[in-house]
Amino acid sequence: MGNWVVNHGLSTFIVVWMGINIFLFVYFFLLYDSSDRFLYTRHLLGSALSWARAPAAVLNFNCMLILLPVCRNLLSLIRGSFMCCGRSLRKQLDKNLTFHKLVAYMIALMTAVHTIAHLLNVEWLNNSRHGVYDELSTTLSELGDEQNTSYLNPIRSTTTTPTMFVFTSIAGLTGVVITLALVLIVTSSMEVIRRNYFEVFWYTHHLFIVFFAGLVFHGAGRIVRGQVTTDPPHNTSYCKDIPDEWGQDPSCPIPQFAGGFPQTWMFVIGPMVIYLFERLLRFIRYIQKVTYRKIVIRPSKVLELQLVKNGFKMEVGQYIFINCPAISPLEWHPFTLTSAPEEDFFSVHIRSAGDWTQKLITMHHCGGSCTWYEKPSLGRSLGLPRMGVDGPFGTASEDVFDYEVSMLVGAGIGVTPFASILKSVWYKFKDSNPKLRTRKIYFYWLCRETHSFEWFADLLQGLEKEMEERGMGNFLTYKLYLTGWDQSHAAHVMVHFDEDTDVITGLKQKTHYGRPNWDKEFEEVRKDNPTSVVGTFLCGPEALAKTLEKKCVKYSNVDPRKTKFYFNKENF
Amino acid sequence: MGKIEWAMWANEQALAAGLIYLTGGIVGVAGQFRGWQFAAFGVAAGCFVCMLEYPRGKRSKGTSVARTGQYCFTVCVKAFGPLTQNYYVRALLHAALSVPGGFMLATVLGCVCLGMASLIYLSAAIHGEHWEPILLTKEVKTAVGESIKEPPSNPPPRPPAELRRKRVEDVEGAAYVNPMPVITNE
């Protein structure tokens, strides 16, 4: 159980969030359902009043939260200032988009309830106004027609229709507009649209500006009204049966009503300002100058960009957003940094995976004849596109050196964050950096084709050599798994079985064929490190994440002195 | 990212609109709102739109993920042939269905959402898209060749492919080929 909490930290966080939601809903439901202030309002509207107000409170809370998880600079700041606190706390910041989606689902659900309740409210208010119901309802609806009285029923005309009322009141009009904006945002964020037609998703999501603008003014009409105390007090329990004698009976003066103070803007103004700063910062980053240091095109269609930017400071395993105005001035694409903090530049490896990346590679390719340049500020003279860089932003891999033992799992191109880590290990080793807490690193690389090994093999080779020279060969254990292989590969390996280095990568470690047997691997790690805290890091597909997460729970020991596995994931 | 297929978004939007229309209609009928007949129409139209839109169309490029249990809907929708395939027809149909919703408050949201879906479908139609069903392609079973009756020409045990000697009849081919390129170590 304890391990489950450790490995599913977000769930604890979600429980807290859900608890607050439930509390707000129940609290406001009961408030509007039982408070004497709203006795007359309830007489007109019934329980639909509570059903409208309780979701409203939950909506306020969630609209406050929805912008925060997408402020990546804010998250970086929080991560930085939480350095003292536990890593499980910081780890939650990586699941920001999951949280964003959860909050969005809650907003959609509460909007539905809120809207349905108000549909009923408007209809019933209109009916009361037309005198369809009992005498008290009619009397209450007619309040405010004469001087010195304040109205309870916001429908002031007897000739209007619910539709006309909604489209002429602030609350109604803004409500319809922001609900429509929300519907468009939700339909265009469905998995199939988001994954395949990102532009549609991205542009439509900017309707959030309309949404928040409408939301701020939604309550300004003060339509939901409650009774205010008068002198002498209006005794509702006695007077509600004799609406005829209001104003004549001394204990029943004409009741006075006032609308509630609009609160939504107080909830959302803070996050809105934070988000504005976030976008401003992104814009500043966009206009900052970035120079090329080196461009390498690998045969496996992977483009390596080495860039330099003033004041750029990175940590291992972080990622940056890259923008290329020549392709699209609005699109920012995330890439994991593959350089180490110790280097005087930063680099990314970009694989051709879609339109944007394909265009970028073509732009840097210049006909395939000149594969690389090595001069700063060469870019402009060669007509290379200008680049914008936002970041770096932190992810879990930052914590690798905090664990005594680290298991790194990279699948396919997902190996990139670990390139940075392994490079950094190499540099830290050279300098005998005291910050290096790690005693042992297990590195698993799952890959489909031999091609992709080549651009990374250089690095591993260098590392291997260095470690052997220093007699620290045990520090890094790496295993390569080739998942796409055929008979000719196997035969090839059989022939060269006795050689010292691997036939494919030229490394000391032999390449394995097929997928790793995780049970065996975890068992081995546990056996070798019986008392350690092991951090498991993955950059790869969702299915693998699930498997590893389960294994982490399975192989963690309840005894705090024994081996524990913590799971971290990086996923785009 | 590839070319945008508007119909995919239109489909999501129309499905949502159908649900909203249906919900609005149910509220209107259940609450016996003034003009609840429009709400009753909304229930029918919402149901119809949901059923029409539930089967997701096939993407022109890349993998198409079907919605859970959409198969029988796909078959029904496909049965109407060119009528359901053409997105101009859908745009018109949705526009027509949305009109009665505008006459009462409960269905106004459904009406506007469906109107938007209609507009997106129109843009899809203008971009030359049309609906294609997602159906499982039957695996073509290759007939077993006649050669199965003959004895194997190269029976096991066999050495790895690279080590296999060529047949002696083929003198040129019989020359030994290195399984691996030979590189001098420098």
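Chain B is about 45% helix and 0% strand.
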